[in-house]
Design a protein that fits this description.
TIM Barrel; 10 strands; 3-keto-5-aminohexanoate cleavage protein; single chain; about 35% helix; binds zinc ion; 13 helices; eight-stranded parallel beta barrel; alpha/beta; two-stranded antiparallel ribbon; about 350 residues
């Protein structure tokens, strides 16, 4: 993104979109006081997050035994209930549906491709499904300290700890090419979860080759263990490398969530919070979904940046937008055109295009 002299002024920035991830699929009820168990509690959690200022809901569904649900019927039921309860929210299904370990607690294995492709068939359909780009390590405990894990199921269960320490994201081209196709065919927006600049470059190649022709809505996933860590220079560089027309949300882990998000808010980006990412406020002091959302509202308002309403969040996220061609996609994302045969030098936007084709 290009920062003009006036880009840091809140009146020139998009209103803040707060993404809530309140279902903590890697945790079990009791790991945090506010992990909802029943369907009613899960729906009420969404309502509470919305009332606190969150306008995007990152969804995982929990079974009554406390583990993450892998049943499509549960996802369908949750979607029906959420559409009624929080009609203004952007509903985003976590593509890492298999994030929760299998029963027995010794596996954190991502489900096979066919099962994950079923996320494109949820009815009623969500606004978005998150998608990882590229197979890699996702060791979610690498950046967690012993005190972060104290008293949690992962901290107390060596087998579970090991499963999450060694977790692999299975998302190679065979998966994401087909998944993007299915999401687009069903009118569901892909929400890219990118752990570093190399994954952003892969997405740019997909766009430049016409494989993906829609809005570029993404999270910078700075959770360590194979993804970016906490270095602010990497965060700022990622923001710098994202096209002007993209919508970027900062996602981090445990007590880096607030400071990383504070940088993101100051720089006009959006934020994600919730017990899926963080259980702590000050050292040794627990937080909650609602406290984390309220903290983001407070930081943003202190800087003079307004909080988006649900309708505004849907517009900012470009829900329902699709583009007809590679050129249109590049133009709408604020990216320069592809090189034509024989063209020398760096590419410029076409004269008179005013950024649109
Ligand atoms: Zn998730």
């Amino acid at each position: 993104m290009h920062f003009h002299d006036d880009s840091l002024f809140p009146e020139n920035q998009e209103k803040l979109v707060i993404q809530a991830a309140p279902y903590g699929p890697e945790w079990l009820p009791g790991d945090s006081e506010d992990i909802p168990l029943t369907m009613d509690e899960q729906v009420q959690t969404a309502v509470d997050c919305y009332n606190a200022g969150a306008t995007v809901l990152h969804i995982h569904v929990r079974e009554l035994d406390g583990h993450g649900s892998k049943r499509m019927s549960m996802f369908n039921e949750m979607m029906v209930r959420l559409r009624q309860a929080v009609p203004e929210m952007v509903l985003q299904i976590g593509g890492s549906i298999s994030f929760a370990p299998e029963e027995g607690g010794n596996e954190a294995k991502w489900l096979d491709y066919d099962t994950r492709h079923m996320l494109a068939e949820i009815d009623p359909k969500p606004d978005q499904v998150t998608i990882a780009i590229g197979t890699g390590q996702m060791s979610i405990i690498e950046m967690m300290s012993d005190s972060d894990l104290e008293g949690t199921s992962i901290g107390n269960n060596p087998a579970l700890y090991k499963a999450y320490r060694d977790m692999i994201v299975e998302a190679g081209p065979e998966f994401y090419l087909e998944h993007l196709k299915r999401l687009q065919a069903n009118g569901i927006q892909a929400h890219f979860q990118l752990g570093h600049v190399a994954q952003l470059e892969t997405v740019e190649r997909l766009i430049r080759r016409g494989v993906y022709t829609g809005p570029l809505i993404l999270n910078y996933v700075a959770i360590g263990g194979g993804d970016a860590g906490r270095h602010p220079a990497d965060l700022v560089e990622f923001i710098r490398r994202v096209p002007d027309g993209a919508v970027l949300t900062i996602e981090s882990l445990m007590r880096s969530v607030a400071p990383m998000n504070a940088v993101g808010i100051a720089l006009g980006q959006h934020v994600r919070v919730g017990n899926e990412d963080n259980l702590w406020f000050r050292k040794g002091e627990r937080t909650s979904n609602l406290k984390q959302i309220e903290q983001m509202v407070k930081i943003s308002e202190t800087l003079g940046r307004d909080i988006a309403t649900g309708a505004e969040a849907k517009k900012i996220y470009k829900i329902g937008e699709y583009y007809g061609s590679v050129d249109e996609t590049l133009s709408r994302l604020g990216m320069v055109p592809n090189r034509q045969p024989g063209q020398r030098g760096f590419m410029l936007r076409p004269e008179g295009s005013a950024g649109r084709v």
